[in-house]
Design goal:
Blueprint (H helix, E strand, L loop, with lengths): L4 E2 L10 H7 L16 H21 L6 E4 L2 H20 L6 E4 L5 H12 L3 E4 L10 H7 L4 E5 L13 H11 L3 E4 L18 E5 L10 E5 L28 H16 L1 H22 L4 E2 L11 E5 L12 E2 L1 E2 L12 H5 L4 H5 L1 E5 L6 H12 L4
Helix pairs in contact: 1-7, 2-7, 3-4, 8-11
Bound molecules: pyridoxal-5'-phosphate.
């Protein structure tokens, strides 16, 4: 295959060889089911999963029983939203008024279930965001009502690389006794994520954004101190203490724990490397298009792996040969429609067509950056 420069690591990442190595035994010789505990196969699988849960709890600064494994962040976000509303309605009555506050620049795995909840009578109100896609704390305080039961705030925006002030948002929510759902899918591995320092109550994660396997993630849900209660989304054999039925993806969980361990251990080293490449890329783009605009926060205040740019001109409508980046719709770039994030920030169609998310990862080299700049140069006038 002709070499394609991959700069779309916010969409997904390759599995780290160290992660792959620890997963391998769990595909064949250690293939047990965690619920089949009448033989060493089941015990071994159970012990592997519980040891991963303890390891991840140590990394995230929470308790192991607050972590539930899922098929990814989409499921975790759907479960948090629907499980909370289900719990309120079954314990307080089906007519209980429920008001949810959300930023308008959430991932579709928050925005779509919110639309579903609106259809079943939940009131959803969107917060104001700055032009850099960050929540305005004063607006959050002003919009909280007695019937507000949840606030949704993405930790790091997947398109613009904006870091929300999660600790301050969590403090406001704490004070008002409202749980906070924070999607940390794009935060882990790029910023320190401590659930003790930033006390959100529901937090979603995904393995494939940090060099782990696809199809595995988790939901943190606070069960100590200020508890958040959820009804399950998936009912069945009673796995995960009855909270999430379905045979556990043991190789995936083992891989996710290793990926999180590596991300945590090399956080600063990776960040420094990405910050240098990010600066080089931005300088290169400015030199080929002096009118290029950086969307989201300035360098140094945004995700170290991400640039979101609008070129002053763009001459192609189609895929860029030799370069994998996201145009217009970011995570949904199969159809180049304007994303909800860009729409919320009032991008015009023409601007969205000239806008790209370029995201670097662990394998990115200086040579990749220089080649990417040369390729982009062909398309800006
Ligand atoms: C911020 C954010 N949340 C959720 C998801 C969905 O994650 P998953 O692919 O694990 O379902 C993504 C992935 O694109 C994301 O970037």
């Amino acid at each position: 295959m002709k070499r394609v420069i991959y700069l779309d690591y916010n969409a997904t990442t390759p599995v780290d060889p160290e992660v792959q190595r620890v997963m391998e035994p769990f595909f064949n010789e250690r293939f047990g089911n965690t619920l089949a505990v009448s033989s060493p196969y089941g015990w071994e699988a159970q012990e592997a999963v519980e040891s991963c849960r303890r390891k991840i709890a140590g990394i995230l600064a929470c308790q192991p029983d607050e972590l539930t494994f899922t098929s990814g962040a989409t499921e975790a976000n759907n479960w948090a939203l629907r499980g909370l509303v289900d719990f309120i309605r079954t314990t307080e009555g089906p007519q209980t008024p429920i008001h949810i506050l959300s930023s308008p620049v959430e991932h579709s795995s928050i925005l779509s279930p919110l639309r579903f909840l609106q259809e079943i009578g939940v009131t959803v109100e969107f917060l104001e965001v700055t032009k850099e896609a960050s929540i305005r704390l004063e607006d959050l305080k002003a919009k909280i009502r007695p019937e507000t039961r949840l606030v949704c705030a993405v930790w790091v925006n997947s398109e613009l690389g904006t870091l929300n002030p999660i600790r301050e948002i969590a403090e406001i929510c704490h004070h008002a006794q409202i749980p906070l759902l924070a999607d940390a899918t794009q935060a882990l591995g790029k910023f320190p994520v401590s659930l003790a320092a930033s006390p959100a109550d529901l937090v979603s994660f995904s393995a494939h954004k940090l060099y782990g396997p696809k199809g595995v993630g988790l939901l943190f849900h606070r069960r100590h101190g200020r508890k958040v209660q959820l009804r399950p989304l998936l009912y069945g054999g009673g796995h995960e203490e009855g909270l999430r039925s379905g045979t556990l993806n043991v190789p995936g969980i083992v891989g996710m724990a290793k990926a999180m361990e590596l991300a945590d251990a090399r956080l600063e080293e990776n960040r420094q490397c990405w910050l240098r490449l990010q600066k080089e890329l931005w300088d290169g783009l400015c030199s080929i298009d002096p009118g290029v605009r950086l969307n989201g926060p300035p360098l140094g205040q945004r995700s170290p792996t991400n640039l979101h740019v609008t070129f002053s001109s763009w001459t192609s409508q189609s895929v860029i040969p030799g370069l994998a980046i996201s145009q217009g719709a970011a995570c949904n770039s199969a159809n180049i429609e304007m994303s909800a994030v860009l729409r919320a920030l009032n991008f015009t169609d023409a601007e969205a067509q000239r806008s790209f998310r370029i995201s670097m990862g662990k394998p990115t080299t200086q040579d990749d950056i220089q080649q990417a700049i040369r390729i982009v140069q062909k398309y800006v006038r």
